[in-house]
Amino acid sequence: MPRSSAEAALPPRLLELIETLDGLDRGERVEALISFAERFREVPERVARRPFPEARRVPGCESQAFVWSEERAEGGLDFHFAVENPQGISARALAVILADTLSGERPEAIAAVPAEVVERIFGPELSTGKSLGLAGMLQSVQREARRGAVRSGG
Predict the structure, then answer these.
(1) CA torsion, points 5, 125, 95, 71, in degrees to nearest 10?
(2) Which of 39, 88, 97, 137 has its CA 20 to 30 A from that of 126?
(3) What was the pLDDT predicted at 38?
(4) Distance in angstroms (rounded) separating the CA atoms of residues 111 and 65
């Protein structure tokens, strides 16, 4: 199936992951997302420690997620997350996906990722509340990318 122009504009690692998930049936997708969640590693202490500042909290996220960025020596940002709800499997999965696919990308490429990506990753069965919280995680990463661009003069 040919890619739409919106898909072609996605960062390559994110596009590849979405295309992989699109090829899975519902059960396989759930297993893949659980596998991502199992890889979750909380924000390193060199970046943040509890209690986490409210300014880093993802608005509307039921899993009480927090987002930080850290500048890379060679440029770009690495993204880090905390997910305070131990049942926050979707938030943990998305944290791993965003860190894996958007870390190191250009801020303008991150800013251009549409909110619909969340539904593409998780499927249409996602509840409205969960969808809004996960979209908030993406928006928080985008905000961090814009801040990083300002800090680096980009």
Answers:
(1) 30
(2) 39
(3) 98
(4) 19
Q: How many domains does the chain have?
A: 1
Spatial CA neighbour of 101 closest among 3, 4, 19: 19
Pair 68, 79: CB distance under 8 Å: yes
Q: What CATH number does the domain containing 119 carry? A: 3.90.1010.10
Cα separations (Å) of 16 from 78, 89, 111, 113, 121?
A: 19, 22, 18, 14, 11
Which pLDDT tens digit goes with each residue over 22-59? 999 999 999 999 999 999 999 999 999 999 999 999 99
- State the Cα–Cα distance between residues 148 and 146, nearest whole angstrom: 5
Domain that holds residue 31: 5-151
Write the pLDDT tens digit of every residue in 68-77.
999 988 888 9
pLDDT in tens, 92-143: 999 999 999 999 999 999 999 999 999 999 998 888 889 999 999 999 999 9
- On whether the CB atoms of residues 134 and 122 are closer than 8 A, the answer is yes
